[in-house]
Amino acid sequence: MSGSKVPKVSKDEEVESDASMDDIYSGNEKLQVDFEGRNPIDSDFDGIKQMLNQLFLNATINTNELTDLLIAQNYVGSVIWQSDVDDEEDESDMDDSGLIFGITSVLNISQKLEKESIKQIRQYLLEKSQSAADAAGKLKEILEDVDHPVGFLVNERFINIPPMISIPLLDSLQKEINRAVTKNMPFKFEYFLMILKYYKTDAKKKSKNFDEVNFSNPEEEVIAKDAILSFDYSVAEADTGLTGNWLEDDVALTPYRKVIVFEARKLPEIVGRIKEFVE
User: Fold this and answer.
1) Measured in Å, how far apart are the chain's first and last C-alpha atoms?
2) pLDDT in tens, 147-199
3) Is the Cβ–Cβ distance between 212 and 200 less than 8 Å?
4) How confident is the model at residue 77 (pLDDT cuts 50, 70, 90)?
């Protein structure tokens, strides 16, 4: 997706990270910038790792190795970076800045089972699924079926970057997967698995008769509707307080994760519905 334009963030948007940005980004700053997608490069390591850490929080996942795997397959997947460079500034300098705002990519978690991070992701998901009896057996069956590979789809970015940015990123990912398949690379997936971030307001704490759910990436509410398997778990205890200000009208929002599995063939159709959702 190198050099592909994605939508501009308006000057009234605040771009925030779910994780601590003390050494990279000051946070809560008003920005008016253009973003582009490009393939991951070595200097993106810290930014990609940060995105993975905000997804897994304190789970025992080797995010160093996971980041290396995502960068190594630079023919599939994109990172979001700031593209509005000054005329006097060389664009290659921006490529090496190390500051990225998101990543959309996929890893084959039905292969490379010798990799520690892949084994840890599989084990982590199986453990979390035990709280949902109906999902546990089905997830185990899907993960162990080597003839129907599973792709772990990563769709992470800073908070408040508009959801329309996901459309060119997911479109590009699908095209890159198709090209990789024609070259006999291991990207012919039967299923995609995602971990979605959302926050819930307890109905007892608000004058409503239902729990209000807010997805970090709004388009993922659309994606979740196609799930053939899903389960949820709270990460409130894992939230160190560095992952954001989860208050709405003085009511705390409880952070959750939703694990979903959907058929890979549905991705183009899902992207079409996301387009309708954000328009």
Assistant:
1) 23
2) 999 999 999 999 878 898 999 999 999 999 999 999 999 999 999 999 999 99
3) yes
4) very high
State residue 108 phi and psi, 5-degree precision.
-80, 110
Cα of 202 vs its chain's centroid, Å: 25
Cα–Cα distance measured from residue 11 to residue 31, given in angstroms and rounded to the nearest whole number? 5
Tokens read off for 129 = 């699924």
Residue 224: enclosing H or E segment and its boundaries?
helix 219-224
- Rounded-to-integer distance, Cα 33 and Cα 12, Å: 11
pLDDT at 121 over 80: yes
Tell me what the pLDDT averaged over the chain comes to.
Answer: 82
pLDDT tens sequence across 29-72 = 554 567 888 999 999 999 999 999 999 998 999 999 999 999 99
Residue 137 token pair? 């057996």
E-strand spans in 114-201?
150-157, 191-201
Distance in angstroms (rounded) separating the CA atoms of residues 260 and 52:
17
For residue 118, which amino acid is it?
Answer: I
Taking phi first (over 0 means left), then psi (-120 to 50 degrees means alpha), and beta for anything else, what does residue 84 get?
A: beta
**Residue 103, amino acid:** I
E-state strands within 42-190: 78-82, 102-108, 150-157
Q: Is 71 helix (H, G, I), strand (E, B) or coil?
A: helix
Question: What ranges make up the beta strands (E) of the chain?
Answer: 4-9, 14-15, 29-30, 33-38, 78-82, 102-108, 150-157, 191-201, 212-215, 229-234, 247-248, 251-252, 254-263
Q: How many CA atoms are closer than 13 Å to the CA of 69, on its beta-carbon side?
A: 21
What is the spatial distance between Cα 44 and Cα 163, in angstroms, rounded to a whole number?
Answer: 22
